[in-house]
Every structure is written in structure tokens, then in C-alpha cells.
Amino acid sequence: MTVSHILGYPRIDAQRELKKATEAYWKGECTRSELESTGRELRLRHWQAQQDAGLDFVSVGDFAFYDQVLNVSVALGAVPGRFNAAAEVAGGEVDLDTTFRMARGRAPSGAPAAACEMTKYFDTNYHYLVPELHDGQTFTLASSRLFDEVDEALRAGFTPKVTLTGPLTWLWLGKTKGGDFDRLTLLDSVLDVYGEILARLATQGIEWVQLDEPALVQDLPLAWQQAYERAYHRLQSAPLKLLLATYFGGLGDNLSLATRLPVAGLHIDAVRAPLQVESVIDRLGPHQVLSVGFVDGRNIWRADLAALRERLLPLKVRLGQRLWLAPSCSLLHVPVDLAQESDLDDELISWLAFARQKLDEVVTLARLIDNRATPVDEQRLDQATRALDARRESRRIHQPIVSQRLAAISPADSQRQASYPVRAEAQRRALKLPLFPTTTIGSFPQTDEIRAARRAFKAGELGPADYEARMQAEIAYAVERQQALDIDVPVHGEAERNDMVEYFGEQLEGFAFTRFGWVQSYGSRCVKPPVIFGDVSRPAPMTVRWSEYAQTLTDKPMKGMLTGPVTILQWSFVRDDQPRETTCRQIALALRDEVLDLEKPGSRLFKSTNRRCVKDCRFASMSGKNTLIGQWRASS
Which CATH number fits domain 3-393: 3.90.1170.50, 1.10.10.10, 3.30.420.40, 3.20.20.210? Predict the structure, then answer.
């Protein structure tokens, strides 16, 4: 029969229980043993959900109190010396507080120290702790936490598949410290510890270990490609089976490399790179398992079970028992359970699937292609088909006027009407700014008072007029402080904005917001991404009245601030029924409307925050046209 499994499950839980417990521990409101007890309860709950759904394995090793890459660093004893590593590793264990100090610089015990660097995990909105690597560094097994979690799962009667960041991806994600050197010189020592981990897991009775190697979808230098062959030829001696997991894209130039590695199975992302499936099968060894990720692990839309069944049946014929099914990547990147959503309407809910629902989709697909579907599976198939048919025909999704505007865009719309010297001179005369004007990014702190006012307003305890007066008072304070500091281009401080993306999404057509759609961004930080379900347009101005009010408080040019279209796109769950580029251009047109309205009351400067762009720029308006000014990170 077709094996169904997942690559990982959200660890925060449906009500962010992990966040609350971890932060309570940091505040001294609970003990370490109480925190560990919460961790055990959450792991058991997540394993039970996977078993109840009918998966053949539960995922062990995907749990972390902070970050899974950090867990590997700790397991390898890769603890920077400023965290008193020598003392903490005594007895072979790096304790939990050392892990927290690596992540955030402080913990209930141990001396504070500069936290490790944090950055985004590939192209996701999840952030990992960057391993610090030193020339000549050696590694030793320094944590038994993974083995303890395996024992927990076995004692509870589950069948575990262990998941672990692969050795090459861990090195790929690391950064050199104390001088540049070839990170691959550390590989042998890393592999020594991985070999020890795999051998110990085998003694616990583990049959399958999933080694996550998303670095294989990157453009790898030749030395790194060769290192994969060397590493996995060493690891093949482990007395268990290895599933090499790749995701976030296609294997590309690494396809032949990945398929000839001596592993028992290979997982590929068939959502991001569906065309690679046949090529991988053609090169797969005769005894190797292929796990295909046709259920989207990065987005929240319901799977088209009927269409996927038709795509999978030929694969089943070719692979037989060697075909496994899974989501495209770990479900860490989607919310936990759609069942608790009460603020979304029934139609929109019928189009969605969170992590818990994706378990059912994977299991149902496996049963459908095996001809062992239950009445529940047939019901899910029918419900999915009807919901997706309704979504395609829904008038909520398509706005003809938006399509018409996109079609009317011409190359001339992207051309400047004057050269840079002409624009710069006009700008100099109009704004009368000094040679090096001062300004800020724009966001002043969201104080406890601001948050309290927003909560009271949402709860109906504070009327609209009173809420606006509170926000105006905060804006006046922000402008006054900038006046005192003689800032040349002040900002209004964004007191009224709950979030740089959510604030705009709440005022744009085509967006929806969940109540419990939390996903982990890093550590205990969780975000609730907007859902872009339909064509995007702007029914009314979003920031103009706040900018108008702020401008009345100063004679200096007040800078308006907008979150850019790519950032809004990337920080949202984006509809999957049209190219992402089309959705991004719709957002851009909506923001263009806002820019034009900002120009009308006389705002001569505005800033578009777009964290995905290479250039960090401010925008100016002269004679009704937008011109770029300010500081550039890349030459223009």
C-alpha cells in the first residue's frame, strides 16, 4: 500500500500553547520542568493527530522550543564560547537555558551574551538561528533530546519516522566566524556525529530517518555537489533507512546527483516543481522509494483531490509500493487547524485546508490510488470537488475592472518623463532640503497604551471618535519629538497601524483574515498572515487622513508610508488560481491609487516599504509623477 507521512508538523499548537508556555518560563512564571511537561503534552497531541488521521508514521524530531536548526547546532555541540560552552557541555549535554541564550541572548539561568544571528529559512517567512562555524572546529554529540523524544513516541505506541536537518544543509546555512575558510573542511567531524546519531536511533528501533536537504534545490558549487556524494556514501553504513527530503523548489542541476545518492528514498516537492516528477522517476534506483509532495505545505488552499488522484495513478503504476505521499514540505509554514475558525464565512472556509486538514488530504489520496477508499474518503473527495468548482465560479474572486486595469498597462507606464538631473533639480527647488536630509524608517514603537486603545476599540469599549483622538494624540507626540530633534522629513509614526501588512489588507478588497491562523515566524513570535482569495482593489483611501492630520502639525514635508506590493504578497497566503505576478501587480495598482490620493493634499514625499527589494528608497512626487530619491543600497 502507498505510505502516507508528513515532513513535519506545526509545534506551536492551535492556541499557541508553546508560545505561552515558553514566554511564561522566560518571565519566571513557570519552572523548567513545567515547560518540559508542556512540550511532552504538545508532542503527544501532535502525534495523536497524525495517527488519528491514518498516517503510517508520526514525525519525531520536528519539535523545538525555539528552532529546529538550532536544535541541530546544540546536538552537534556547536555552541559559541561566549555561552560558556565548555561548562555547559560537561557531562555531554547542552542544557535548555544555553539554547535559549543562543537564541535570544538571555535565559532564566546563565550569563547574558550576544545572541546568534537569525535570518530567513530559504524563501519562507520562518527564521532560523544561523550556526557559527570556526576554522578547525570539531563536533561532539551534546544533546540526548532527540533520543528522549523517540522514547516518548515509542512508549506511547506510535510508529516514528525521525526528521533531522541534513548535514550538508546545516553547513550550508552556517556562517564562518573568525576569518573566512572553506566550511566543507568541517564536514568529516559533522558526519562523525551524524553517524553516531543514526546508530543510536537504530538501537532504539527506528527504521526510517528523514534527512532534510533543501540546499539541493539551490545552485550548488561543484565542491558542494561532490560533498553530497562523499557524505551520503559515509552515512549509508547506518543500520537504518534514509529518506533524503528536498523541497522549496526543483532539483534542477542537482537532479542526477540526488537520484544517485545511496539512500533508501527521496522526497521531492511536486507543488513548486511538478515537471520534475517524471525525470526523477526515470533516474530513480529500482529499490528506492519516491515520496512526492503534491499537497501544498506552504499554502492554505484545499487540494483538488480528484485532479491529484488522476496525476498519481500513473505514478502508482510505475512505482507500486515504492510510492509515498506527503505534503510538499513541513507543515510548519501553515496554521494548525481550520476547525476553530469562527470569523470566516462558510464559503471561504470550504476553500481552505490547514495543517490538520492536510493530514486528511494526504491519507485520502493514498487510499484513493490504492482502491481502498472508505466512505469518509469518498465524502472528502466529493466535498473537495464541489468546493473547488464553487470557488472557480465565485463572483467574490473575479472583478472585471481589475482585469481591465491590468490589461491596460503598457510599457510606457514604467518610463520616466524626465531625466534624473531634471527631476533632482525640480525636487531641490520644491522641497528645499539640505544636502543630506534626515528622516526615519517611519514606525514608532507600538506602546502598551496604543495596544490597549486598539483592544478597547475592537471590543466596542471605545468609540470611533475616542479611538481616533487617542491615535491623533500619539501622532502629535511623534511629530513633536521629531521637531525637537530637528528631523528634516518627519513621519507620523504609524500609531494607527496594527501591522505593516494586516493594516493594508484590512482595507483592500480580496483579502480575508483568520482568527487563529497563527504560524511561527521565529522562537515564540507568531504571525497571522492575511489570506488573498480574490482580485485586489482599493475601495477607499487607507492612509490619507492620518497623513493630512500629521501635516497640519509641522511646516516640514511629512513623509507618507506604504508597505510595498511584494512585501504584502510575500507576507500573505496568496491565491493559487492565478500567477503570483498577477496578484502582485493588482496590489501595486491599488497602492498606486493610494499614492495619487496622497499627492492631492500636498504630501510631497512618501515611502514604500518593500523588504524583498534590493533597493531601499524613498519616493517623491513632482508634478503628479513619482520620482526616486534618497539613499540606494545598489547603484541606480
Answer: 3.20.20.210
